[in-house]
Amino acid sequence: MALFSSLTPVFIAIICVLIGVILKKSNGEKEKCETKSKPLSHPWVDEDLKDGTDHHLEEEEVDEEWQGLEENVAHVPFFVERYPEAEMIKRSQMFYDFLNKRRSVRFLSDEPVPREVIDNVIRTAGTSPSGAHTEPWTFVVVQDPDLKHKIREIVEEEEEINYKKRMGDRWVNDLKRLRTNWIKEYLDTAPYLILIFKQVYGQLPNGKKKTHYYNEISVSIACGILLAALQNVGLCTVTSTPLNCGPQLRVLLQRPANEKLLLLLPIGYPKKDATVPALTRKPLEDIMVVM
Predict the structure, then answer these.
(1) Region 1-22 average pLDDT
(2) Quick one: pLDDT at residue 164?
(3) 55: Cβ–Cβ under 8 A, 6 or more apart, which residues?
């Protein structure tokens, strides 16, 4: 009995060691599992812009040596025309006054628009900067009346659900003052629809996927340039982001899986009786901070 009593602390110590080893092994396997399941870090992806339909690259699918650009890109001298200060101020004011006339117009005429104009404004949008010059955009121009109507059917079906169920009372009430609803007549009447897709990744010649850095931000900048180009030629549009329509429209337009719809723009002249809300824009002091 005395011997057993003297050995008891030894047994307790051995049991404690064994428990410690088991717990350490269990925690190690848990950390390993968590590390394995943790998504890859993509610092070029804005957390506010991610959603569940983005196509994420697997680590083994990324080609680290070639991203679709030449390894060594030649650099050439760059010159820009410089203006006297008075001319700069004049031009900046004129450009502001010009773009300040831009409005979102929902009442579009079916009057034909020259196709060359559409080509040029999209070519202009393609001058936009992009992450690592990957140019992750596709501009789908729809002019076929039947295809435009199919797009309208898809959009209106989903938009009715959006207004009645998905968007919520606050969102719907905020839109009432703009007199918008799920009826999108302009999708039929506008001579052209431009659907802008972001390429969430590219395709290398060997079939592997190529990373498109900041693809949503890059395409958004291109859309801004496109809006300015449309204003420059006297055409109108309304920026439309049809909620829950992207996958159906991608299939309808036969776009590949790496493309996701970002924006839908009906393009045309305003109807003679077109109206727009009497809105004002924030003054400079409310949108600019000088430090």
Answers:
(1) 58
(2) 72
(3) 200, 201, 257, 258, 260
